[in-house]
Each structure stands twice: as structure tokens, then as C-alpha cells.
């Protein structure tokens, strides 16, 4: 299954504050990885939250397969997976439990959920940390657990918010390879990053400067 997720001339603001994103048009395309780059505060997370259905534009719209995306509940139902910037894991559950809970609440049967959890932790190199509490994992291990959870859900859209920021070079490369595998199975992947090398490994780049798009060109 593929999905076409489009931000169509969106402007985003928090409360009555000035806009933090202005007139942005960008598509998450099946089979491709879009890098969203820009300095701290440029609006990368805000764009991802709009695509995830967590925030509504004040102008323009986010559409999914041509129809307006209503909210996060609809986005979850339609398989728009978000790996949030600060991992979003439950610290007092184990790495495996965090993934299992997500899978079971997405409707996966318990036996399949256990198998998918083990596979996902293996892919990020955390097979031996499966039964460890998240609060006892290092920052990079927590980040990889959040990535494993996002991978295990196998959605048609994967939104990954700075998911390599705490990783060493080898794990960063592993994660980029895993994001590529997601695109190769047909997912639309959007990846925010400060790392020019990581961005260069993606198919397309949207560069934000103070909420404005500057480089929408495909490579
Ligand atoms: N909840 C909020 N309330 C008010 N302003 C916010 C909120 N979240 C973000 N902002 C503002 O929106 C702008 C864009 O923030 P955003 O987090 O999208 O940037 P970013 O590019 O992801 O930054 P970073 O690389 O540091 O994560 C910033 O000026 C920030 O202060």
C-alpha cells in the first residue's frame, strides 16, 4: 500500500504567534526519502508535525491521497508513522515492550507482534537490550529503540525527526540504510536532519531558512 502525503502551501503558527512556516509545498513520495534540513528553529519539526496530523495549518492544507488530513487519529489509522525527536518512548517499559505495545494497539496479533519486535530490535543492533528498561539505555540506544518501533509498524509513510542526532557514525549509517530499505519497500520517508552527509544520502531535499523553503529541487 502506498500513500501520497502532500503539504500544499501550508503556513504554520503556534497560537497567535507569528508564522514559523510560510507557504510550504512539499510531497512525501512513495519510494523516496525527503531530507528536511535547516538550522535549529527553522521549522523542521513543525513541518513534520503538520504532516503527522498533530498540528493544523493556519493556511493551506495537508492532504492524504488528495483529501484533507483531519488529525493525528486519522493519520495513525492510515499508517503515517512518526518517530519523534525525543523518542517518545515509555521509560519504565523495556525496549521490547515499547514496540509490542505499539504493534498490538495497531491491531497486530500478539505472536506476530513478538516476532516483528525481535526483528526490528535486531535490525538496529539491539537484540541484547530487548528486556532492558528504556530508562536504563543510553541516549543512542533509546533513539535506536524508537527507530525500531517506527520500522516495526511498517507504515506507508515514515516521518523521522532527527533520528540520527545521538548516533555514532556506524549506527548513523545503519539507520540511513534502514530508511533506504523503507523507501525500497514503497514507503514515503521524510527525515529531518542537521547532518549534510545524511541529507546527501536522501533523494530530495527541502531546506528551510526561518520558515521559508529555499531548495525544493529534486536531485
Ligand atoms: N510549542 C511551541 N510553541 C511556540 N513556539 C514553538 C513551539 N514549538 C516550536 N516553536 C517555535 O517554532 C519555530 C520552529 O521550531 P521547530 O521545532 O519546528 O524547529 P526545528 O527546525 O525543528 O529546530 P531544531 O533543529 O532545533 O529541532 C521556532 O522558532 C520555535 O521556537
Automatic annotation (TrEMBL):
UniProt xrefs under SMART domains: AAA
Molecular function GO labels: ATP binding; ATP hydrolysis activity; transmembrane transporter activity
ABC transporter domain segment(s): 5-219
Keyword Nucleotide-binding: yes
Alphabetic keyword roster: ATP-binding, Nucleotide-binding
Pfam families: ABC_tran (PF00005)
GO cellular component terms listed in the entry, alphabetical order: plasma membrane
InterPro entries to which the protein is assigned, alphabetical: AAA+_ATPase, ABC_transporter-like_ATP-bd, ABC_transpr_LolD-like, P-loop_NTPase
Family: Belongs to the ABC transporter superfamily.
Protein name: ABC transporter ATP-binding protein
Source species of the chain: Catellatospora methionotrophica
Amino acid at each position: 500500500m502506498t500513500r501520497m502525503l502532500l503539504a500544499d502551501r501550508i503556513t504554520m503558527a503556534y497560537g497567535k504567534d507569528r508564522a514559523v512556516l510560510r507557504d510550504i509545498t512539499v510531497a512525501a513520495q512513495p519510494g523516496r526519502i525527503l531530507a528536511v534540513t535547516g538550522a535549529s528553529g527553522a521549522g523542521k519539526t513543525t513541518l513534520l508535525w503538520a504532516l503527522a496530523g498533530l498540528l493544523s495549518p493556519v493556511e493551506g492544507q495537508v492532504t492524504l491521497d488528495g483529501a484533507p488530513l483531519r488529525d493525528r487519529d486519522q493519520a495513525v489509522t492510515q499508517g503515517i508513522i512518526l518517530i519523534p525527536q525525543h523518542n517518545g518512548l515509555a521509560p519504565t517499559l523495556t525496549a521490547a515492550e515499547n514496540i509490542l505495545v505499539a504493534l498490538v494497539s495497531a491491531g497486530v496479533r500478539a505472536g506476530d507482534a513478538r516476532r516483528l519486535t525481535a526483528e526490528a530490535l535486531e535490525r538496529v543492533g539491539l537484540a541484547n537490550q530487548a528486556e532492558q528498561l528504556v530508562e536504563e539505555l543510553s541516549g543512542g540506544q533509546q533513539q535506536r529503540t524508537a527507530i525500531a518501533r517506527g520500522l516495526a509498524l511498517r507504515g506507508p509513510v515514515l516521518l523521522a525527526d532527527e533520528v540520527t542526532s545521538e548516533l555514532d557514525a556506524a549506527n548513523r549509517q545503519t539507520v540511513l540504510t534502514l530508511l533506504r530499505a523503507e523507501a525500497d519497500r514503497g514507503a514515503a520517508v521524510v527525515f529531518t536532519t542537521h547532518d549534510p552527509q545524511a541529507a546527501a544520502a536522501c533523494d530530495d531535499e527541502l531546506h528551510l531558512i526561518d520558515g521559508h523553503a529555499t531548495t525544493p529541487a529534486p536531485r
